[in-house]
From TrEMBL:
Species the sequence originates in: Brevibacillus brevis (strain 47 / JCM 6285 / NBRC 100599)
Keywords: Oxidoreductase
Pfam families associated with the record: Aldedh
Family from the record: Belongs to the aldehyde dehydrogenase family.
The Aldehyde dehydrogenase domain, residue ranges: 11-472
InterPro entries: Ald_DH/histidinol_DH, Ald_DH_C, Ald_DH_CS_CYS, Ald_DH_N, Aldehyde_DH_dom
Keyword flag Oxidoreductase: yes
EC number assigned by the record: 1.2.1.-
Molecular functions per Gene Ontology: oxidoreductase activity, acting on the aldehyde or oxo group of donors, NAD or NADP as acceptor
Class of the enzyme per the UniProt entry, highest EC level: oxidoreductase
Protein name (record): Probable aldehyde dehydrogenase
Length: 479
């Protein structure tokens, strides 16, 4: 398969640099070729999106919603083949990838319905015969910049609310999600989406992403990716006074209190830490355990790890696939080496016979490092979890909050009072009890505190606030 740009309803293949995409599960297998855009493609997309925006915003919410319903139906029809392609492109285990596709369909339907819901408030006037109200209006042209770890769901949770609000979109996906992005755009092209409403530009972040955020005449940027890139984008957008949203890294803690139901807790910890090979911004990477139950929890984790098999992403029996790329393999490998040197490995998943064929990293749980150690403080973005101990609730919360990140946090307990106290004091945008740090539902606001997020939220109704601005309207209808 070859990547393509979709600009103003036309498909085109840039004639410049190319990149071969290899399957992270079997690196000898070529999945396709990326054709990298240059700056001129960004400006062409900007013009197409600008030209389409007024007409798109003029359509009724119901009409825009109807097109989103069509997009959902087209995606549902093609879900399995797209899941397979994404799984081959970035290594997410096929069962999980299918789950992601189902979420994409639900997101489109959820936002399609928003076209028919109220989008403002009636505000009493202090004058007579005045009708005063607020309404949400679109921002204009929105740049959407997405990472590779959720190559379908993240783009859709940005594109769908942007479109229903009446914006047009220029989408730049991550390099190793670009074949999936091309196919997704092809699927959307089967619907009645007008030309130029959604534009796809494939290319390098430093070139195409940078041109989009620094030079193109866009009215807003929605970005998900690393904290480093996010901060650069935030600075660029603030300098241009355009709206931005940056969803970034995490170092999410799960706190296990002595009264937790350990048999139920352990599978949830494992899933939070190791599904998607730990490459979720909301993955559990710190497990903070009350001392009284440390040993029994460790024993249960050791037993559970026996079933946490790494395998080819197409293997439905595998718990996790490889990490996504050579770059990921190298970075995560450095943290695994650090863990082997400076921590104690208490559990590691069984070895995979064909490890040398792909970017396979066996999940590890380690202990024996201080709370300020790099393994406890830095985002690994791979299958590595660190255990820490706490004397009780207060110390556990202190450790949980001792992070520059604040995306997601979980508590495991049977005590309602502890649960409520944790929901009050945990410094994270998403706080959960007896649940994974990952897996927040799409109809609820998604985002973090501190360095995890700019100060907006995605998904749910919160996304509609980001992709629109408020207009206050008043009319004196009689003198
Ligand atoms: P990344 O920052 O390298 O890239 C993300 C996107 O930004 C890609 O499309 C990339 O091409 C583009 N980009 C890179 N440099 C750019 C620049 N200078 N200007 C504009 N765009 C640029 O991140 P990644 O490695 O693809 O993703 C992993 C990171 O994403 C992790 O830190 C993870 O925690 C984070 N993430 C966060 C969330 C969240 O919602 N908080 C969700 C998923 C992933």
């Amino acid at each position: 398969m070859h990547s393509k740009n979709w600009i103003g309803g036309e498909w085109m293949t840039p004639s410049g640099k190319e990149l071969t995409v290899k399957n992270p599960s079997r690196t000898t297998e070529e999945v396709g070729v990326l054709h990298l855009s240059d700056r001129s493609h960004v400006f062409a997309a900007e013009q197409a999106a600008r030209a389409a925006q007024i007409g798109w915003a003029k359509q009724t919410g119901a009409a825009r919603g109807e097109i989103l319903f069509q997009m959902a139906a087209a995606l549902e029809t093609n879900a399995d083949s797209l899941a397979q392609l994404a799984s081959r492109e970035m290594g997410k285990q096929l069962g999980e990838m299918r789950g992601e596709l189902a979420r994409g369909v639900s997101l489109l339907r959820y936002y399609a319905g928003e076209g028919m819901r109220s989008n403002g408030n009636l505000i009493p006037s202090s004058d007579t015969n005045v009708l005063q109200y607020s309404r949400r209006v679109p921002l204009g042209v929105v740049a959407v910049i997405t990472p590779w770890n959720f190559p379908v769901a993240i783009p859709i949770w940005k594109i769908a609310p942007a479109l229903i609000c009446g914006n047009t979109v220029i989408w730049k996906p991550a390099e190793n999600g670009s074949l999936t992005a091309t196919r997704l755009a092809e699927i959307f092209a089967e619907t009645k989406l007008p030309a130029g409403v959604l534009n796809l530009v494939i290319g390098k972040g430093r070139e195409i992403g940078n041109t989009l955020t620094n030079e193109a005449e866009v009215d807003a940027v929605s970005f998900t990716g690393s904290s480093e890139t996010g901060r650069q984008i935030a600075i660029a957008c603030a300098g241009r006074n355009i709206k931005y949203q940056t969803e970034m890294g995490g170092k999410n803690a799960a706190v296990v209190l002595a009264d937790a139901d350990l048999d139920k807790t352990v599978p949830i910890l494992l899933s939070g830490a190791f599904r998607s090979a730990g490459q979720k911004c909301t993955a559990t990477s710190r497990i903070i355990v009350e001392k009284a139950i440390y040993q029994p929890l460790v024993e249960r984790l050791q037993t559970a790890m026996e079933t946490c098999r790494v395998g080819d992403a197409s293997d439905l029996e595998a718990y996790l696939g490889p990490v996504a790329s050579a770059a990921q393999y190298e970075t995560v490998g450095q943290y695994i080496a650090l863990a082997n040197d400076e921590a104690t490995v208490i559990a590691q998943s069984p070895s995979y016979a064909k490890e040398e064929q792909g970017y396979y990293i066996r999940p590890q749980i380690v202990e024996g490092v201080a709370a300020n150690h790099r393994l406890v403080q830095e985002e690994v973005f791979g299958p590595l979890a660190v255990l820490l101990t706490a004397d009780g609730f207060e110390e556990a919360v202190e450790l949980c909050n001792q992070s520059v990140y604040g995306l997601s946090a979980s508590l495991f307990t049977r005590d309602l009072a502890s649960a409520h106290r944790f929901l009050d004091v945990a410094q994270a945008g998403m706080v959960r009890v007896n649940q994974e740090t990952a897996g927040v539902e799409y109809q609820a606001p998604f985002g973090g505190m501190k360095l995890s997020s700019s100060h907006t939220r995605e998904q749910g109704q919160a996304a509609l606030d980001f992709y629109s601005t408020t207009k206050t309207c008043a009319i004196k209808y009689a003198w």
